[in-house]
User: Fold these one by one.
Assistant:
Number 1:
Amino acid sequence: MDEKDWAEFKRKLKSKTDIDLDLYKEPQMKRRIGNLVNRSAAKSFVEYFDTVAKDKDEFAAFIEYLTINVSEFYRTPDKFAKLETDVIPDLLARSPKLNIWSAGCSIGAEPYSLSMIMKELTPGKQHRILATDLDIEILAKAKKGVYMENEIKSLSPERRKKYFDALPDNKFAVKEDIKSCIEFKRHNLLKDPFEKGFDLILCRNVVIYFTEEAKDQLYTRFFEALKPGGILFVGATEAILNFRKMGYTSYQPFFYQRPL
């Protein structure tokens, strides 16, 4: 598995999926993908790619592994509490209808959590939640909104009963009134254009393997996508150290605001 092999693997991956590994930290991605290669019968990155690309299900599993689709409802509850008690009420004081973006939404736990919060804070009002991800298979699961019991274990019994319908085989389906305000869409954060005019953007536990340059470009583009006064919410291990250079002010730890 030499550099030529790695370069050809990256070329093939980008051609098929639009995932550009040059924007990711190379040592971590080589190790992560190398683990898959070593567990297979392949003798190179390219041979591994060519093998999994022939099987739709295997390739989907590979992309899910590559894009690190780990999520849960109300992930880091203390931060979501701040979102409920401080951030969203402040935003609602300026705009009665919020435009929210869950960037890298994975299985949908984050946008559905947001929809539940908005329903509780503003009953009877409709807000827009855009939920995007790179992985088409994961987006399909998110849009379907059906989860196993272990996938909703972080929800309180009250919210589980209020916002989900019980299905056979220990499955739970998100109710239609929670799904109705969410727009699911495939989007590549490192390539595709960004919409403008968001009150709130969440990008949490998405950038773990991005290069520092890619992160800076991403957070700058989020700044431009926010309304004045809008807020970016990042993951608990993703503090933006140079946020002032990008134009943000600190609202609270892990919440960054575009000044009014």
Number 2:
Amino acid sequence: MHGDFESTVTERRYLDDSSVREFDATVTAVRGTRVVLDATQFYPTGGGQPHDTGVLRTADDEYDVVDVQLTDELEHHLDLDLDGDGSVDADESLDLEPGDDVVGVVDDARRSAHSRYHTAQHLLSAVLLSEYDARTTGNQLYEDRARLDCEYDRFDDDDLAGIERRLNEHVDADHPVRWYTMDRDVAETELDTDRTRIDLLPDSITELRIVEIGGDGPRGHCERTDAATDPIDRTACAGTHVTSTGDIGLVTVTGRETAGAGEERVRFELD
């Protein structure tokens, strides 16, 4: 019988180790073609990063994961394709029930591209803030390109060439990338809020995931340590990232355009 367990809060395992592509989980809710798991490696749409895709396997069936969303209650919805046509029919229902064991497999190419672009976007935000005093106001990532909006009047061709050169210097330096959690009140006291933009987060978020690039410290998920000195960038982020700037690849700034009064949009691609 379809329904819900008492709690459908999903453990977001990608926050700790975003390199994992296959995982075991248990179904906690089924609503038409939508499934909720007790734990997941599928990243939901958010923070300018698109959702993961992949497959969800049972002992007898395999379903395509075509959309992933996160609710305010930290419940992940996986929308599954029953017919293999890339679409979801709300009138259909799954042969799944709460308590069923499943295996999730994240599409590696899509996740890897998003992780590379997300880390590159953090680098771009850091360069624009440190060298142009231009704060990031928005971003959007894709598998083959990305864009970033910032507070600035107008970049010229020399600016874009300099930004591209600086980004690739950071890539060539192969800086470590790490992430850890910390209490919000501590972060608001100790971190640079111009870059972390903690003030934009809902008050309900009391624990932050901090992503750092550069400095002396480990790579990947870690405990916060004072050993990570003078990072190039440090910001609150729940997205997926590579563990080294060398994994980003060559950055090409492909252009700019006006995004509004006093705002610029910078577009870039990775090789």
Number 3:
Amino acid sequence: GGALYHYVGGGVTRVRGLPPSRTSGVYGGLLDVSLHPSFSDSRLVYIAYVDNSFDLTVARFELRDDRAERLSVIYKSDEFSIGSRIEWEDPSHFFLSFGVGGDPYPAPGPQDLSADVGKIHRLTADGQIPPDNPILPGASKPSTIWSYGHRNPQGLHYDASERTLYATEHGPLGGDELNIVLAGANYGWPLFSYGLNYDGSRVSDMSEGAARAVSILPAKFWGPDYRVAPSGLLFVEGSQFATWNGAFLLGALNPQHLLRYD
């Protein structure tokens, strides 16, 4: 189910007072931990996890002497997520990815704008709907949804200077992606994929050209012949490895390796 540890001054202490998290098979549990941009003053920590109801939940708490104090749930879905990441846009807004899978065929949800799964959400620091979120097709007002048609985005990076959000996303058998995420945009899953279903069949009969007409294609994709299973996403700057500056690092899960993409 996951646990949270505080590393400081050469010592490691388990943080107490966290809510229980649940797994379903190998998925779920404690999915991400993120410090609020003003953590040094506020001591606020945010966690994304699957709760006892098997629903994706975001809670925040104050870290005091290795204890989670004044914990409150600020977002709770009624759906299960197999992967999630928190990324701050600014001290008042954060992005939250909500992953879905499907074996051997795609699970429904990413194209359903009434469902939370297969989306990247944007929330205020206290979990509310930002009034400047996009108004999606068929809606009359904003929701938490920032973009849709995702499969399982587990890496997020926000470039504040360019005001641009990047995301890495698991495909099925191949078809892993790096996306530039635009407000209100459809990223096509499962209408189109560069990967295959887990039984080796095509995900759909849609052509690349037809997909480009109705969705945003990835900035970079890896086909079935090169498996990535991308987890975290880091943009390298100010590194002692000078030739790596300006590139992305992806944590790859299958097989386990570190992937640099410039």
Number 4:
Amino acid sequence: MSTKIAWLQPIWSHYHIARAKAFQKNNPDMDLVCLAISDICGEVNASDWLVKDFCNLNHVVLFPGMAYLDLKPLQITKAVIEFVIKNKINVLCLLGYSKREIQQIAIGLRLIKPKLSLILFSESKKDDFPRYWWKEKYKTKLLKCYNTALVAGNIHKDYLMELGMNSDAIFLGYDVVENHTFNPNQIKKLPKPINDNYFFTVNRFIPRKNILLIVSAYAAYKQKMGSLAWDLVLCGDGELRPQIEQKIAELNLQDVVHLPGFLQQKQLLPYFAHASCFIHGSITEQWGLVVNEAMAAGLPVLVSKTCGCFEELVIEGFNGFGFNPHNIEQLTELMIDISQDNFNLEQLRNNALKHIQKFSPDYFATGLKQAINNAISYEYR
């Protein structure tokens, strides 16, 4: 009899579909159910997260037509536990542990169905937020509900180990994208959205994404480089858009800083295809999947050192550079060096493309298979 696995997501996105497809392709002997709480998020500009086509994957939506943000934690908990019991699920994968319903599901199933294998998907790291001892103590107890974990990278593994999870029960590979979608050999054929060279970034326009610092660094860069300066493209939208527009106007950058707005993945591909360098400047970021996408498009990257992906994806001087997200001058100098070709840009591009190949949906599939095998090999203690 095949192992029945349910992977619970509040909302399924193209990121999750790519990973699930790779897992099912590599493990046809396992029965995976893509379990969605809802098919409507209820958040503005969240449509890119939603998918209608599950690519022939077995999937169930618990609350179709109801916005996830309108559902009560107890509603969700009850529905998930009933689904697991009714469908005789052997392994349940849960994303994170901060949401109340996830805590309730983990604790409830551990009590009701102690032989069920629970796998934690996590991309938390210690420096994401201020940590308080009493919350950390609660997390340590909560983690005892889980058999194993699949995390984004080593910095995320270290945090779970600090909370008390055994290192042998933690596996890598959670944060990946479908690299071939961004392959430069394919997307370079797309029409250029901008004729000039440009730095490129994709973000929600919220404070922690640090867009205003990027604009300030670019202004200093433009002042030093003059007519030789590359343009800047800021894709995205959000609450800070009026402030960003005002900042651009104050610095007289309207002709060289472009704001295409919120774009779906297919609409973003031409920008990835023809960018000269990618910037990701978040003050805090658990991972940063847009950096995966940029590297898969063959772009050199300038990445904030506080991003969770930095230690795994960026090899300084090889495929990009890191910077302090509070240091305008540091980012400005990197922009100058990159655009003056002080580094071999072609080599940086090739190295970015080469390095990201490890971080593929197959990497996720391998990590999840290891986590499942480890979880079901031992009786829960």
